[in-house]
Amino acid sequence: MIELTRGGCAARILPEEGAVAASLRVSGHDVLSTTRVAGEAERARPVAVTEDDWVRAWRGGWQLCFPTAGQADTSAAIAQGFHGVASQAAWQVLAQDRTRAWLAWEGDRIGARRNWTLHEDGLEARTEAWNAGPTPRRVAIAEHLVLGQDVLAGALEIVPPEGTRVAPLDYAGHPAGDALAWPGEADEAWASVDERTPARVAALTVPVPRSLGIRGDHVSVEVSWEGDAFAHALLWEELGATPDPPWDGQVHALGIEPTTTPHGAGTAHDVGILELAPGQHIRWSCRLRVRWQEGDAA
Description:
Elements: E1 2-6, E2 9-14, E3 20-26, E4 29-30, H1 51-57, E5 62-65, E6 92-96, E7 100-107, E8 110-119, E9 122-131, E10 137-139, E11 142-147, E12 156-159, E13 165-169, E14 180-181, E15 192-193, E16 200-205, E17 210-215, E18 219-226, E19 232-239, E20 252-259, E21 274-276, E22 281-292
Antiparallel strand pairs: 1-2, 2-3, 3-4, 5-11, 6-7, 7-8, 8-9, 9-22, 10-21, 11-20, 12-15, 12-17, 13-14, 13-16, 16-19, 17-18, 18-22, 19-20
């Protein structure tokens, strides 16, 4: 485990479990989602093939989904499980100091390097991925950034930039309707998140400069990202509304997930899949900023 500290912020990075940022505290408040396995010791886990496998091993937090994001693609030239091998595989620690950690992962001639930096108001990930193989590789990449705990303590409004479009997905991440100007159909109320919000997923197409704000009486959050390939973000809302396994009514999460791909169907779905040529590298960054309203800072 790597512990980062800076001012009133602290983060825990778990190299053995996808280099996940398993927790983030800002001004005494917990920012990221947790699940019932969050208290377990860090350990190497077997590759998750299905969504059920992946969720049951998921402790919450913020991790990279790579080389695919979303549903498994068992028919690919190199088969991929749910959310990609790198999301729960062991990463190598290259270096670390009090506020930063550098990690790397490589498998089947595709790899990534990731730099976590703790700021005074949140956390940032800068990532480079590449294809080291002799043939092109189809990939879908997502920052699986999932808010929870104290962020979900009150009603929230999602505030994207002007020009954002929203398209509904089914709960498995497959396209389920046309893209409309934000906030979409009035009866869907995509801009609002509270205890009445149903379990649901949508794909957002976000103009440059890309960011999403999350506002409440108790907190102000901004997720911003850069990278030419990352024109989208998935919006995942699960506030204990799904009683069925593997959720079991236990998961409270708000996913704000910058991605290359406007769905969660994985590389088996042709739309929005990125192809990395042999030797090609891509780079991107994602930053999470959190400010608690006066009276809520511990």
